[in-house]
Amino acid sequence: MSAKTPGKIRIGIGGWTYEPWRGAFYPDKLPQKRELEYASRRLTSIEINGTYYGSQKPESFAKWRDETPDDFVFSLKAPRFATNRKTLALAGESIDRFFAGGVMELKEKLGPINWQFMPTKTFDPEDFSAFLKLLPKSVEGRHLRHVVEVRHESFRTRAFVALARDHNVAIAMAGDSDYPEIADPTASFVYARIMGTSERPRLGYPPKSIELWAKRAREWAEGKAPDGLPYIDEPAARTPRDVFLYVISGCKAKNPAAAMALIAGAL
Length: 267
Description:
globular; TIM Barrel; two-stranded antiparallel ribbon; 29% helix; nine-stranded parallel sheet
């Protein structure tokens, strides 16, 4: 993209199979096998969470690819076997197995890979650097985008931000959550997971919060550093970036409504 053209904004939810969405987000009597087809035509991205807990069949990835619109993109949670370990430098085998397990069947619909860490995982600069070096820049000729989602306060350091930036790896912005918020842009894209939906607002978030997050998404796409977010380094204007924003956790029943409202406000 050029320095003046904003990046692409994609907004969605985590997964698409959730019983309380039936009759609320999904129409009554919609067959469960058509839920992804329905969700992908109202959202612009979905984060697949099942890949965090175990492998999926290559045929499943191919099926999900074929059921979604041409411009739809999935992000994937990487397997916990790679991140939930004492020594990250030894994760190479798990990382290789993940990419050989069928995820590349998503082809052009493969978006960022989210490497999520436990809240107990602390920042070890040497070991974390070794881990980032294990993340492949491409597989089967397809460029990959990586995200690290860290959940311990020890990561709120300039050393961590600089390390992520050196590897062009995004730091997941954990918005409206109890986890450490690090808003520094460190990659050619922004990855945000907002977790503040609640039961009372009709759309999960009050209108002002919807407006705020939609505005932030637009500013990220324009290469700006939105006000009111926690930065480790001084924010500076940069080139436009693609944006991936997911409404996660909180009042999960309301997340599709919040995501659709954000799409209407941001695009």
